[in-house]
Task: inverse folding
């Protein structure tokens, strides 16, 4: 399922075999800490509206694996996915198939299904330079907002994380608005021989102006890419993007964010709402959940811990201890107690949102 230590040679050998059987489209590679999924979906959706054939590869998923491979407006259907599985397993040697991780195998499926399309919007996983998605040459790199995350793989400073992600750029790049100035400094060093595409600011539609600020920023990046690709002065409508400051109900907001960078973006939106929320929360053990909770504390009246069955989830006793040290009330989450009198923020990861939706929809 996961690597303890990244072994890039396996997916590279697999791609060498697969590449003989497909023709890749124009590849737009997206790296960064936050905003990859929404930037990619805005871009892919607008390209489709411009009559381009496009595949958007993203991860993880909320409810169904098919969400990871979006082709011309829809998640890939089971029949197409099964045929791709069969073809990939006929192409690759068994010794490679046995060694590929879940993410690497899924990435290869996405590459296979992009055969002969116009565009492939390819979202990196946790990394950049040694990410499975970087096994193919990219025509354009999008660098979304970078912050501290996955330090055990990428490094423990903004500079190290930025450099690892930026070294995946092969040719041209565009950089989204950044929180940390160190990102721009690294860009000037690591990407000094690459061509930078100008990120512009556009007058957004009335629909887009209702988006949270962080989503507006991601849309501006997507529009700048489209401008560079030669698509200008066109009408568009926004795609529905699940789990990004989504009003699931009038009093329930769900968001798949899971790190301090995401918490800060959410906090800015909550400040405008001026209400106290019950935070339905859990965290992976390698996340800075203390900082996340500290950022959200001014807007939270109680933390309810939702159980998530995953080996990477933090020990419950440690999470409770952290919550109590912040002088926040805490209890176990029970879907039966959700009511219209309270406002709820479901936050902490794709896994938290997935588990909430499973309980809610029972």
Result:
């Amino acid at each position: 399922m996961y690597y303890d230590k990244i072994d890039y040679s396996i997916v590279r050998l697999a791609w060498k075999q697969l590449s003989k059987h497909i023709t890749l489209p124009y590849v737009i590679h997206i790296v960064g800490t936050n905003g990859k999924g929404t930037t990619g979906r805005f871009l892919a959706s607008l390209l489709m509206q411009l009559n381009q054939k496009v595949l958007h590869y993203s991860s993880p998923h909320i409810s169904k694996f098919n969400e990871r491979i979006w082709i011309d407006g829809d998640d890939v259907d089971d029949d197409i996915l099964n045929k791709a599985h069969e073809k990939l397993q006929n192409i690759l040697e068994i010794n490679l198939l046995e060694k590929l991780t879940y993410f690497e195998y899924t990435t290869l499926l996405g590459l296979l299904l992009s055969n002969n399309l116009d565009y492939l919007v390819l979202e990196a996983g946790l990394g950049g330079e040694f990410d499975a998605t970087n096994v193919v040459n990219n025509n354009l790199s999008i660098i979304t907002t970078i912050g501290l995350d996955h330090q055990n793989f990428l490094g423990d400073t903004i500079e190290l994380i930025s450099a690892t992600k930026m070294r995946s750029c092969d040719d041209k790049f565009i950089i989204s608005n950044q929180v940390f100035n160190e990102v721009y400094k690294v860009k000037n060093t690591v990407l000094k021989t690459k061509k930078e595409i100008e990120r512009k600011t556009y007058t957004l539609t009335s629909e887009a102006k209702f988006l949270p600020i962080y989503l507006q920023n991601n849309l501006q990046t997507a529009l700048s890419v489209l401008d560079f690709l030669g698509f200008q002065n066109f009408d568009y409508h926004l795609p529905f993007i699940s789990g990004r400051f989504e009003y699931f109900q009038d009093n329930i907001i769900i968001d798949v964010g899971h790190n301090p960078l995401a918490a800060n973006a959410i906090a800015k939106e909550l400040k405008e709402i001026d209400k106290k929320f019950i935070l339905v929360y859990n965290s992976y053990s390698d996340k800075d959940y203390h900082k996340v909770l500290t950022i959200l504390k001014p807007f939270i009246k109680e933390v309810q811990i939702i159980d998530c069955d995953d080996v990477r989830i933090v020990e419950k006793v440690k999470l409770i201890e952290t919550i109590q040290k912040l002088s926040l009330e805490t209890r176990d989450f029970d879907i039966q107690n959700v009511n219209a009198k309270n406002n709820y923020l479901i936050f902490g990861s794709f896994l938290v949102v997935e588990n909430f939706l499973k309980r809610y929809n029972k």
Remarks:
- The domain at 246-360 is CATH 3.90.190.20 (Protein-Tyrosine Phosphatase; Chain A).
